[in-house]
Amino acid sequence: MTAPDGKPFLYVVVCAAGIAAGVGELITGARRRGWEVGVIATPVAAAGFFDVDAARELSGRPVRSAWRTPGEPRPFPPPDAVVAAPATFNTVNKWAAGLADTLAVATLCEASGLGVPVAVLPCVADALAVHPAYRDSLTRLRGMGVRFGARWSGVPEGDGARPEFGWERAFELVE
Ligand SMILES: Cc1cc2nc3c(=O)[nH]c(=O)nc-3n(C[C@H](O)[C@H](O)[C@H](O)COP(=O)(O)O)c2cc1C
């Protein structure tokens, strides 16, 4: 299934990590590669972690974070691939547990069952990554076929500079 113009459709699920401010790079890169993009943000992410207006401009579609009402048409076509970037500790754990309390997590919960590639770029601090719930979540999601990029913690390297997040890793995982 593809977008009406015949291009493949990518869902970009954005969580409330500081690095989300750069998600425009992912949207732009995806469109350059021929994807149509629909952005689905967690409510916390949409409330100030990235420029929602810019994401709407770049994707050419409204940014979603709430469910439609039953009478409303589906705003996005079904996805050909789903990328969660950045993915927070909170969302990864809710996703693995099947707690679909936001449109973003519900979308992720459903994605594996659609049989499309699903990729994650986790942005989780070292102190949270050792939590047993997180480790269990990774095992469970990997068992569902979800593809993980290396965890990014944002910790500065030896020279004091923060490492690149590497948004383009998402394309290597889904393409
Ligand atoms: C400035 C700021 C940056 C944050 N960065 C991260 C992060 O990189 N990773 C993370 O897991 N949580 C981070 N958090 C905490 C999340 O925003 C918080 O857990 C939130 O509930 C996640 O919601 P979501 O998973 O629904 O997007 C950050 C919070 C703030 C205030």
Automatic annotation (TrEMBL):
<feature type="domain" description="Flavoprotein">
    <location>
        <begin position="12"/>
        <end position="130"/>
    </location>
</feature>
<dbReference type="Pfam" id="PF02441">
    <property type="entry name" value="Flavoprotein"/>
</dbReference>
<dbReference type="InterPro" id="IPR036551">
    <property type="entry name" value="Flavin_trans-like"/>
</dbReference>
<dbReference type="InterPro" id="IPR003382">
    <property type="entry name" value="Flavoprotein"/>
</dbReference>
<protein>
    <submittedName>
        <fullName>Flavoprotein</fullName>
    </submittedName>
</protein>
